[in-house]
What we know:
It is a single chain. It is globular and about 35 Å long. Helix 1 packs across helix 2. The protein has helices at 17-30, 63-75, 79-82, 89-96, 102-115, 147-161; strands at residues 34-40, 45-50, 56-61, 119-126, 129-136, 139-146. The termini are far apart. The chain has a 6-stranded antiparallel beta sheet. The protein is built from 6 helices and 6 strands, in the order αβββααααβββα.
Amino acid sequence: MVMMQGERTAMLEPGTYADTFRALSASITQVKGRNIGIVDRGDHVEVSWLGDDGVRHERHFNEPDLASLREWGKKLRGAHRSAPTGITEAVRSLRDQGIPDAVESLRTLGQILDERAAEEIAIAEMTGGYWVSWNSRGAKVSMVFARDELTARALRYQTLRGRPDEAAPTMRRRR
């Protein structure tokens, strides 16, 4: 692919993943979606999920859509725990037990990608976790994150910030 000077290769950037993923997953959870896929195509972000109706759904997000999602994600910091309108009883039950749901899992995955300065991401939800691919400083990286690992990280982030209903700060590596 030939790029012109200033042309974007990714719509999502480090520092934007956690809030964007929080809003995307909250929206998909409300329609009882599962098996989420997220791919940054450069000129748009493609999000797909398997609906409660058994049909695969897909939506494309451009820059204004993503900016709106990030703002909604910031507003959801803590709000989705106290006002779960439209979210299934099963998810509420998990929250009541202190177990992070898909919103927390994807938000935590977003924090990890923010920490790693990831670009050009692709995510596929799979049984027990997520397969994730990204570019970092010119190197292609692929990893599987187990749901248990994301749950442990989410709880650790909550403990570090001391307030379970606010977004965790982005953890940065010290040089």
